[in-house]
Structures are given as C-alpha cells and as structure tokens.
Amino acid sequence: MTLVKTQIGRRAFIKNTSLAGGGLVLGFSFFNACKPKEAEALAVELEMPKEWFEINGYLKIGDNGVVTIMSPNPEIGQNVRTSMPMIVADELEIDWSNVVVEQAPLNTNLYSWQVAGGSRSISSSWQNLRMAGATARQMLKEAAAQAWQVPVGEITAKAGVLTHEVTGKTAGYGEMASAASQMEVPEEIELKETSEFSIIGTSRKNVDGKKITTGKPLYGIDVQREGMLIAGLVHPPAFGKRLKSFDAEAAKQMPGIRDVFSIKLYDEDFDKMAFHFTAFNEVVVVVGESTWQVFQAKKAINIEWEDAPEATQHLTLFGNKMEMKHPAGMENSEQHTDKLKKMMSGKGNVARRDGNPEEAFEKAAKIIERSYSCPFLAHNTMEPMNFFANVTEDHAELLGPTQTPEWMEPAVAERLGLPLEKVDIQMTRQGGGFGRRLYGHFMVEVAAISQRMKAPVKLMYTREDDMSQGIYRPSYYATYRAAFDAENNLIGFHVKAGGVPESPLFANRFPAGAIDNYLAEDFTVDTNITTGAFRAPRSNFIAGAEQSFLDEVAEELGKDPIDFRLELLKRAQENPVGDATANDYDAARYAGVLELVREKSNWGQDQPGVHRGVSAYFCHQSYVAQVLDIVMENNEPVVQKVTSAIDCGIVVNPDAATNMAEGGVVDGIGHAMYSGLTFNNGTPDQQNFDRYRLIRNREAPKAIETHFVQNTIDPTGMGEPPFPPIMGALANALYKASGRRYYHQPFITDRVFKG
Amino acid sequence: MATFNLNINGKTQTVDVDPSTPILWVLRDHLNLVGTKYGCGIAQCGACTVHLDGSATRSCMLPVSSVGNSKITTIEGLSENGDHPVQKAWLEVDVPQCGYCQAGQIMTASALLEKNPNPNDEEIEMAMNGNICRCGTYLRIRKAVKLAASKAS
Lengths: 755, 153
Ligand code: FES
Ligand code: FES
Hints:
A: alpha+beta, Aldehyde Oxidoreductase, domain 4, 3 domains, seven-stranded mixed sheet, 32 strands, B: alpha+beta, Ubiquitin-like (UB roll), DNA polymerase, domain 1
C-alpha cells in the first residue's frame, strides 16, 4: 500500500450532502435517465438497489452492494467508459460484475480534464480515479469499524465485503453504504501496490457492448425528444467564400420545414480558444420536422456567396495567444505543394542545432536527400457531426458527441448570453473522434438555433457537410538529408519540415541526441482552410517520413535497420549529443520496444516471398515499434502480418488496448496508402466515400499481433501512439517488395506496385 | 406525403411520409428505431444496412415507396434478446471500438451466414468489404464472423 493525501482532486471526493434516497445530484446520462430499464440492461441481469448512497463524485453504492461508477471522460471509441471505471473499481475492491457504469456530465467542480485528447484520459486521471475508489474503501471500513466498535485498522475489504477477522464479523458494502456516505472524507488513504491490482491489467469487455450490438440509442445522432426539431446547415461551398444573401422562399414552402435563416456564430471581439474556431462564421440554417425533409430543403435555397477578405484569427491555446492568418482567395492543392517546395528552398526557422551540421555536409563524401509529403485528411468519424440543444430563457441543455465539453462551454454560454452555470453539457457515446470533435463549433451552432426556435433541436451534418467543413489534418512536407564521410560513417543529419498551415517537426525527438551534427528547421504556409488535430497530430506524418529515411540511411551504411536504430539509441543513452535534457524521449524504453518487436516478429529469419519493414516511434509518452510483412499477390501488396511492441506503462484493459492498437495499425495503413483530401478552387474534391477512400476490410492486414512491455510505470498514452509509426513500416516493406521507395502519401497514387 | 404500410421486424407499421424518404430515415425519425445508422447516404459505407427479404440492403438509398410488402429486418429485430449467434460472437470477440458501424456490420454478417453458413476467409472479406469501420476493427469483425459460423454449424 502507498499512502497518499487526498488533498489533490479532493473536490470530487467530498460527498454531496443532499443525497441518500434515490435522487442523484450528479445526474445520470440522458439515455439512462430517460430509460431506466436500459440502464439496468447495461449490467446484464444485475438486480438494482432500492436506494443509492453517494460516496463521492465518482461513485455511489446501492443498499444491495451494486456500485455505480461515473466515467468522466468523453467516450470516442478509446474505451475509457470501461477502463476508467475499472481503475476506480480496483481500488474500491469490488467485483467488476457488481459495477454499473454511467457517463458523467460535464462538471468542472468535480472532475478535471474531461477531454478526449492527447491520449491523456487515463494518464491524467490515473491518480484521481484510484483515490476515488480508495477513499470510498476507507470510508466503508470506517463505517464498519464504528458499527462493530473495533479499530479500523483491523478491517479488511475484499470483493465488496468488509471483514473483521478477530470477531468474525462481515458485512457487504451495501450494508455499510448509508453509514459510509455520512463519514468524513479521510485526510489520508492507502493506494494499492501495483502487484495487488485485481481488475487493472485484466481484460474486461466493453460496458456498452450489448447496447451496441442490439442497436440501442447511444450516440448523439440517436437523441430524440418530445417536440424536437431537426436542423441542417448550408455553409459556403469553398474556403475563401462567405455568405452574401439568400432566398429561401421555395425552401420554406416545402413540407415539414419550419424556418430558414442565417446565424452568426461569434462576435468579432469574442476571445476564442483554438477549439472554438470555424472557417464559416455565418451559415444558412434550415429547421424542420424530420431529417430527410431538412436535407431536401437545403438544396432548394438560393444562396449567393461572395469572396471573403483576408483575415487574422486571434486564438488562445492553454493561455497562450496565437494568431492565424487566413489569406483571401480560393486555394488549390497544387499551389500548396508549390508553396511548400518554395519554402523548402528558402531559410527555415532553426529549431535545434547540434555540432556543426553545415560543415559536416560541406565536407561529406556522400549526401543522400529525400523528400516526403502527405495531403490533407478529413477525420471522417463514422458518425457525422451532430448535437442536441434545448435552450430556454434562462437555461441551456446540450447533449451529444464532443471531445471537449469543458472548453466549449464558455463559447456556448457567450453565444447565448447565459452565465456558465446555466449551461449544462452531457455527452453521449461518440461514433469516433480522431480529433475532429475537439472543435465544437457545431455545439455553438445548435445552441444558437435552439435559442432562436425556442425549441429543442438536433443539428445534423450530412457526410458532405462533414467532409467539406472539416478541421482537417494539415498537409505536410519534409526533406531529410544525411551526410557520410569517406569511410561511410554517418556524420550529419538534417531535417527541414513544413506544412499548410503548421510544421510537423519535433526537433527534440529521435534521432536528435544521437548524431553529432544535427540540424532541424521548419516553416509554415498560411491558408484559409481550417486545420487541426488529427489522431497523433504532426507525428501522423513525421514518424513515417523519419522512419522511412532512417531505413535508407541504414541501407546506405549496410546495417540492419533494427541494429542501426539500437546503435543510435545507445549513443543517445550513454553519450547524448547536445542538451540531453532537451531530448523528449527515453532511449532505454525506445530500445526496449525495438528489442521486443525483434524477438516477437522473429526478425532476421527471412521467409521467401515475405517482405518486411520496421519502424519505431515515440509520442504521447509511449513507445511503439512495428514490423510489417508484405507478400505480393497479382502485383498488389497484401499486408500479411503486423507485429507491434508497445510500452505505454501499465495496461489497464489489455484486450481493449489490443483492439485499439489493431485499429491504429489499420488506420495508419489506410491513411498512408489510400486516403487524401485535395482542393480545387477552395473546394474539397472529395466530399463523400465515393471519392474519399478509406481502408476497407479486404485491405486490412491478414493478422496483427500486439505485445506490451510489462512494467509498473503509470499509464501513458495509448489511443494515438500505435498509429504514426506503421506508416514508416509500410513504406519500408513496400520498398522491399517492389524495389521502389514510397515518399508521397497516399502511396496508392504514387507508383505502380511490382512484385 | 403518402401513407405506407411497412413490414418491419415482423410488425406492420404505418407511416405518413414523402414517398422519396429513404427507409433509413423512416426507421430513425418516424419509428424510433435508431439502431440503423447514417454514415454517407449514398450506399458507400454500410452503416445503414438492414435486411430486405433477408438480403443485406443499404437503407439510405431505399425509398419507402419502393419496398412494398418486403420484409424489413433491422438490428433491433435481428433477435429477441440480442442473442443471435452473430451478436453473441460480436460480444465474445469484443469487436467494437466506437461501435457506430457495428450494427451495419452485424446485419451484413448475419445476411452472409444465412446464405453461406461456412464462408472462407476470402468470402468473409468480400462480403464485409462494403462496410467501412473507421476505427479499424476489421480483424475482429472477420474473427467474429468465423466464430458465429462455427457456433451455428
Ligand atoms: S449510410 Fe447507407 S451506406 Fe452509408
Ligand atoms: S467501431 Fe468505430 S466505426 Fe467501426
């Protein structure tokens, strides 16, 4: 046991006094509140208690010992709705089969970091979740100690039962729940040792599994309410355009249509967070009785658009002010490439410089230089953007899929002219996030529409709306150079990278610190196309580029690609170049995943016809190495197998983490190979899945093996890290299979495969 | 607007909607059967898959006026208690990530097994290829289809 003070995060552990007796102040999630039968169905065949006792902000215990655990964070498919409550349950010492999970609403008084972003759900709440369970366990023990008049230290808690061995007294948690809920929150509690975990580290199935497989309402798009109207919106057809005027007479006459109007989202002087922004501040709105009617009416509005002037957005991001310049005009993908290439030949911003790279390249006997690129991507969450709002004179209720309820709340409040505490936000399960739902302009939109209509409204984006009003993955470009001396030693390394509108460079990541003469530079190109975080931002390109280039360098040196990386990591560990504290990776853990993947993939034991590529990357505090095997069939590469080795510290729910690692691999192969969004005159060429290609079943690897490094390090990121490196492993395996290097994503458009 | 009598999940349902309305929106907006999902609206993603007389069909491009007396089965009607072999296999393999595509995947898979109780790997991949899973659960989908086939036979 480890003793910890409950001071940090204590708010959530202070019980809410008005409780005991059915009413749950913290609030059930919408679906459960409306349909208690279904809430029960969640915990298959679990008998529900007659009375609940709230112990703290994370959990309440029923008189029969059933425990409800609140899952605070947005569930976007990363499975936190299962894994976060598992952590609470483990410290509480309760059987998982006695647990019911509820989605917590946004509550900044109780919870911190109610955000699905940066792969931080588990790592940022790890301590709080454990303390929530351990605090409740301690309070239950104290209640039993008082009831039995024995010292609290003699009471043990296991699997929902309190025991006093000396007197032989036992009681279920349900029996002590009422008394425990009246206890003072202890100043100090004991956390379990990692070796004592009984739920953490064991595989538990998705708590929503039954609802998902039977089609129960779960998602934002499923929300129904008495008197609810449907809204759709029409945004400018191109980035660089804005609304001039519209004629909606015909649309207003269509059956089921209640109103057509335009709304402005933000006032000029509103102090926007980076997550608030949108390319289209003014949009035309159609409100009607049913989705199909609204979708049809959208097409019947005559709208005139005009060119938008250049603009500068002032945004804050975690307290830092930033400026985004949006030039006027309609942009093309070719222009983007030209601009990136031009910037590449100019001077970049030096982000890191070790040794004397200029001299190393000057006196080099040989230099290799390779350039890499990738296009914009649309997130394409399977569930398009949507949200529900019911705004009355003095209150706003919002419900739906968002990754950032906490950060969107001020924008909604500001737009409605309501104080923050009058805005309640609840989250549904979400049909994917991938970063898109970090940007919740649709919440502000629906709130404004509901306020105007004085009615509950669900805003629905079509797939075309979703894909053409994206907050896209930026397009990136990178050039790598390596210098070799006459003895074929690697003496210099240079990376220069840029993007529209952001640079993908991580100057202090590997191989920084491992090469004597190192130079990292970057640059940016402005755009009026909105871009933002996409699963593993920046890493999702630079990892593949860097790992492909290292493969070429290893080949040039005549070294095995894993040995070569391990050599560099040894150097970074034992005798780092430059400021070692600047390096953001741990070379030993990095080497650890490479060694594990080497062993598990039987690296070095070549099989005829199987072409292998390797890659390893660090991001979100986790380490992933992957080996990808290709066989050629009818001139087409078939990914036969991927082996992943992952170090993300303690793995809370191994099978679910494996699922996500598999998903990361499929996602990475898919985007590197097939996907891309191109622009013509400010309009995306791809607006639905007929032209936007996503990886499909047949194209996914035939097998994926996932191995986790076993350690007791507190959990680090898991949702994002398996995604970036696979693109490098794919490119490297394609080279072995076809004899050609793949530099420009999506690879499918780059070259013909030969085998 | 026109009245249609539809045979859905073994029951006759009457709706008064525009004849062009796709079955997807009839189910979701008018019959409160929201298990069938919207993903693209152009028959490209499979999220809206239902059974039309037993065949996997994209309901997003199926006008209500075109179905006549055909039997429509949705995810809600696939089994009484969510215990169709495919649903059970899905739970056992713990397929879903976000879960949004999975109703469509299950409807496609169950229609496949109805016609071909013992599909090989190739046949499974071909049959499931029209259903996009953005989260990339394809390997688990294949595994669950095989498991369901092995349990049923
Ligand atoms: S919604 Fe019907 S196939 Fe995509
Ligand atoms: S599980 Fe998310 S789209 Fe398939």
